């Protein structure tokens, strides 16, 4: 599930949205009311239940081969996503939808390389270009895109390794992850 040229996507578990209105997200770390969406490259970040904590890593032009081998690993191509076991059943059963939105009313948000440059935002209400589309099997999407999907007992050791590597990364809904293991 990816946008076509001139589109961005908004993923939701609600198939009945008819108008997106800028709002201050409950988890906002920045001021301002926005409608949030993603472009082609960052859609895989949202092939998850909305509240599912996930840690993601991918190669970039400056990624060290050693980091790719150590973190992404054999058989995972250039990208790997990780979730915790407690989210596995929800990944199997969630009904996730995508809304196609007109790209021209959005602007990039954040900066690449810091884990935040993943979204585009609009500051005015946005109408979808059509009805919500069912995303389908999230495991199948990962497989078709060649993205490794790991299921871990706890995300934090993986996340710490990713953050200290030369790979590109993003972590979403990490506040919902299990507590850090006690060392």
| Percent strand | 15-25%
Largest sheet: 4 strands, mixed
The class by helix and strand makeup works out as: alpha+beta
Give me the Rg, rounded: 16 Å
Low-pLDDT parts are: 112-116
Distance between the termini: 40 Å
Mean pLDDT: 92
Note down, in words, how this protein is organized.
This protein is an alpha+beta fold and 183 residues long. The protein has one domain. 16% of the residues lie in helices and 25% in strands. It is built from four helices and ten strands, in the order βββαβαββββαβαβ. The strands form three sheets. It has a four-stranded mixed sheet with strand order 9-4-3-10, sandwiched between helices. A three-stranded antiparallel sheet has the order 1-5-8, with no helix packed on it. The chain is globular, with a radius of gyration of 16 Å. The N and C termini lie far apart (40 Å).
Summarize the structure.
With 183 residues, the chain is an alpha+beta fold. It is 16% helix and 25% strand.
Short descriptors:
183 residues, alpha+beta, four-stranded mixed β-sheet, three-stranded antiparallel β-sheet, globular
Write the layout of secondary structure elements.
Blueprint: E1 7-12, E2 35-37, E3 54-58, H1 65-72, E4 79-84, H2 88-93, E5 97-102, E6 107-109, E7 119-122, E8 133-134, H3 138-145, E9 148-152, H4 156-163, E10 168-172
Parallel strand pairs: 4-9
Antiparallel strand pairs: 1-5, 2-7, 3-4, 3-10, 5-8, 6-7
């Amino acid at each position: 599930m990816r946008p076509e040229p001139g589109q961005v996507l908004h993923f939701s578990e609600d198939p009945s949205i008819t108008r997106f209105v800028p709002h201050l997200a409950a988890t906002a770390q920045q001021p301002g009311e926005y409608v949030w969406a993603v472009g082609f490259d960052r859609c895989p970040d949202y092939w998850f239940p909305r509240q599912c904590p996930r840690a993601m890593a991918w190669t970039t032009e400056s990624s060290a081969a050693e980091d790719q081998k150590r973190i992404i690993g054999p058989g995972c191509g250039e990208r790997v996503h990780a979730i915790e076991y407690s989210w596995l059943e929800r990944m199997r059963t969630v009904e996730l939808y995508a809304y196609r939105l007109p790209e021209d009313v959005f602007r990039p948000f954040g900066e690449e390389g810091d884990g935040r440059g993943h979204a585009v935002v609009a500051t005015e209400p946005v109408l979808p270009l059509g009805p919500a589309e069912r995303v389908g099997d999230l495991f199948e999407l990962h497989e078709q895109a060649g993205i490794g999907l790991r299921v871990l007992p706890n995300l934090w050791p993986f996340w710490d390794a990713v953050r200290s590597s030369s790979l590109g990364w993003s972590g979403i809904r990490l506040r919902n992850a299990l507590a850090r293991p006690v060392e």
